[in-house]
Amino acid sequence: MSVSWWIWASLMLAIAAMLAVDLFLHRDNHVIGFREAAIWSGVWIAAGLLFGVLLWAWQGGDVAGTYYAGYLIEKALSIDNVFVFALIFTYFAVPPAFQHKVLFWGVIGALVFRLVFIFVGAELLETFFWTAYVFGAFLIYTGYKMAFRHDEQTPPDRNPVVRLVRRIIPTDARYHGDKFFTRVDGKRVATLLLVVLIAVEATDLIFAIDSVAAVLAITTSTFIVWTANAFAILGLRSLYFCLAGLLRRFVHLHYGLAVLLAFAGVKLILSETPVGKLPIPVTLGVIVVTITVSIVWSLRSTRGITPGLGAGDDAGSTAGSPNSTAH
User: Fold this and answer.
1) Counting CB atoms within 10 angstroms of each CB, which of 7, 37, 132, 290 has the fewest?
2) 97: Cα separation from own chain's centroid
């Protein structure tokens, strides 16, 4: 699917405008409640679905179906991002009022980094046929890890990127409002909020490799892959504030995500065999059924369990103090 530069430019401007509106409406750093998060989630989901309708009218049902398949995979995988973001915010005791700002700039970084990954990955798949086997095996292995080693967590402050930044940039072990940088004794230093942002960005880089590869298994069209990523990521902040209080009930969701990653890996490998690419309706069907079964299974298994703290609550009250986590 060939897309002219002005269509790319128009899409970038539209996304920038949506982000600007979101930033303007949350410039006061207020705590995001469930109702507000649900409304914004509805807005972002509607935007993602509407873009698919526009693709249908412009390029036909096959292209739109490919986009929706990629969008659903990204949306499902983004739920796992929410788990990790909740861990990071709790670990660093991030005040609820500043969580939206961290996620906002985290989304900006995610859009940029994923655009790079998509172009590199698509070029590799188009140039070297054997990279399909490499990416496919990687997705299958990632699915295995998600299914059977999902509970293995690395403390956020032990992330190599976070540790490297702390060694390079002088960091104060406290929050200074919503500032990423401040002055202490006349010296410009990074605040703990910047450390949190870097932890979020570093974590998303890891997720980006999985999710981009999963959508590339469906199509190598950079436009479709990036738009599926972009519209799924744009709603990530609202999704976090909607689901943060329900995370304890999604106990089996990682099995569904593992199946999706493994399925994407098998699909990618089959695309370079006589079997060829699986039909989009089959792909969509597998995605919808897998997500539905894992969510229903989780909710039935945890019936009667009281949800954990929401994003708007003091989620960090049980975490160690910021002074104990920053070095």
Assistant:
1) 7
2) 21
Measure the CA–CA gap between 248 and 298, rounded to whole angstroms.
Answer: 9
CA dihedral 165, 169, 172, 174 (to 10 degrees): -40
- CA dihedral of residues 305, 308, 313, 315 (deg, nearest 10): 160
Quote the CA–CA distance of 87 and 92 in Å, as a whole number: 9
Other C-beta atoms lying within 10 Å of the C-beta of residue 3? 14
Report which residue type is found at 172. Answer: D
pLDDT of residue 308: 52
97, 31 contact by CB (below 8 A): yes
Phi-psi domain of 103 (left: phi exceeds 0; alpha: psi -120 through 50; beta: other): alpha
Q: How far apart are CA 179 and CA 37, in angstroms?
A: 23
pLDDT at residue 290, as a whole number: 92
- What letter would DSSP give residue 183? E
Q: Identify each DSSP E strand in the chain by its residue range.
A: 181-184, 187-190
With a cut of 50, list the residues of the chain below it in pLDDT: 309-327
The phi-psi region of residue 279 (left if phi > 0; otherwise alpha if psi is between -120 and 50; otherwise beta) is beta
Q: Which one-letter amino acid corresponds to residue 138?
A: F
- CA 131, 132, 137, 140 dihedral sign is positive
The single-letter DSSP state of residue 16 is H
* Tokens at 291, concatenated: 């997500």
Burial class (CB in 10 A: 0-12, 13-18, 19+), 153: exposed
Of 49, 94, 131, whose CA–CA distance to 312 is shortest? 94
Single-letter amino acid, residue 95: P
The number of residues making up the chain comes to 327
Pick from 228, 214, 221, 169: nearest CA to 195: 169
C-alpha 43/C-alpha 177 separation (Å) is 29
pLDDT at 181: 92
